[in-house]
Amino acid sequence: MIAWLKKARQTRTRVTSASAMAEERIAGLELAARTLCAVLLTVQLLTWLTLFAYDSQLGDSWQSALLTLLPLAALLILWKFSAKRPLVGPRRWLLLLLVPNLWLDIYLCMLGSSSLLENFIPTFPAYGRVLVVTLFPLATVLLSRWNGVPYGVFPLRYLLILMFAISTVFSGADISLRRLQPINLPGLHDLSTGVISGAGAVWPVCLLFLLPLSVPRSQEKKKGLPLFWLIPAVMFLLWALWMSMLHPWQYGDPLLPGQKLTAISQYSRSMLINQLGTLFWTSILPVGLIGSLYAGQEILLTAMPASPRLLWPLALLLPGAVLLLLPRAWVMGWMEWLLPLRWLTAFAAGVALLFVKGKEARA
Asked: Omega into 212 within 30° of 0, i.e. cis?
């Protein structure tokens, strides 16, 4: 009887072995990293929609947002299979195809952050804005060490969702379904152009299957993975619908990027909600910038493990800092051509990983 009681008690006792604790830590890090990837996906989708899509499509932008989920689904399916095998041998070098995508993502986050500073503090010098959006994320990544970035972003997930909701569904703005433009066949050409443009913004969904790269993958089955791409997709569609039902600006209005990002908040009937809507962008853009630096550092260290770790955050930030010093109109014109290419590089990397075999480590 005593032996049976001891056995029954042991079956209810949680395993506390060193291997079980290590596996639990890895699973926790994976959860934090997937949350970070969801934030990166949200940032790129909302930034593309606000800075590029709405200018050219206005009330039709919600249609492009809806169809942009098709290239997202394509990458999701591809990378679900291509990232299953270990990243060893030549497979780890293929990840370098994603680095140009991160350069473009980092520039967009730096552009949005710098423009918000310009919008709220017009007297702040241009070089000062560049220093702020360069040195702050650089110091954050360096001080956070290996995995401090995903662990630091994880507690912010509910706060960011709340501020997003305040910017849209709880803003109290005067929205109207009659402002939505119906889908019509003559407009499919413009619609397809918008989808091609927006396809580049969906590429961070690939990172859901990669990060974190600094630890061995957890053996436990990934639970709730669809939430980490479905929630950004829902937020993306809600933002597109609210813009189309509000029409916060018209084509040709000479607005700064910072003014476009906060345009929806201006329609709120409450000053407090207006400020909280602005706080959404001032929070999520730095998080997106720091998260992109972390992802790039992980990829570069995986491809070149013997390289100095402190070098990569600066190398990832430098192109964006240079572009901020160039004429904005000229750079934004080139961005409209370069941003869609992010989908192609992510797709090419996924296909290559699907067929290229890594060398197995010798026993």
From this structure: yes
